[in-house]
Design a protein that fits this description.
single chain; alpha+beta; Transferase(Phosphotransferase), domain 1; two-stranded antiparallel ribbon; two-stranded antiparallel sheet; 6 strands; 51% helix; globular; catalytic activity; IucA/IucC-like_C; LucA/IucC-like; IucA/IucC family protein
């Protein structure tokens, strides 16, 4: 395994699992794009993630209530998620489409590592995380199945940020459906980068 893939594997291990736990067990989707994520390093190794700017999170109150927790956001707050889809869109856009896609694209562009292998690595970490959540009973099995399918198998709604701004949309996403690189079918659509020396 290339040194870059080892780095990517460690990076993904400190960025992904707890965000999937928050989504499935608590109904919280962080806005963990690169600007909001602070990766803690011990020397060259990523060891933790801190996410800031909690104003962009989404909370599905019904999931939070199952844990005996509640929030009372400001009226008409963007924090309230209308449904599971709102959680999926927030987490997918911030974590996978923005944060990890940029890292994967850079690794693939700058090194001899195939982008498809990077996405396979991310997918494997997600699968292990969902398996662990199921084993510990962190959330109902049917919910874990829905969350996993929505994030890892189905085509995804790609947030079209420029189109949103041009249309004056702040509270409504403008999206287009794209293939999901976390699914096998989505990875097949990726064209490998040029070979590196």
């Amino acid at each position: 395994m290339y040194k870059r893939q080892v780095f990517l594997e460690r990076y993904v291990a400190v960025v992904v699992p707890e965000q999937l736990r928050l989504l499935s067990a608590y109904g919280v989707a962080l806005e963990s794009h690169l600007q909001n994520s602070l990766i803690v390093f011990d020397g060259p190794e990523p060891v933790a993630t801190l996410v800031r700017d909690l104003g962009g999170i989404r909370i599905l109150r019904s999931r939070l209530a199952e844990r005996g927790l509640a929030v009372d956001p400001y009226p008409d707050s963007d924090v309230d998620a209308a449904d599971e889809t709102a959680l999926y869109r927030k987490l997918y856009y911030a974590l996978f489409q923005n944060h990890l896609a940029e890292l994967v694209a850079t690794v693939a562009r700058e090194t001899p590592v195939d982008e498809r292998d990077c996405w396979t690595l991310v997918r494997e970490r997600c699968d292990r995380t969902f398996e662990g959540l199921r084993a510990e009973g962190a959330a109902p099995s049917a919910r874990l199945d829905r969350d996993r399918a929505a994030l890892l198998e189905q085509p995804t709604a790609h947030k079209a940020l420029t189109a949103m701004r041009l249309r004056g949309k702040r509270h409504e996403y403008v999206t287009s459906e794209i293939s999901n690189p976390l699914s096998a079918a989505g990875r097949e659509r990726i064209v490998p980068s040029a070979t590196h020396d």
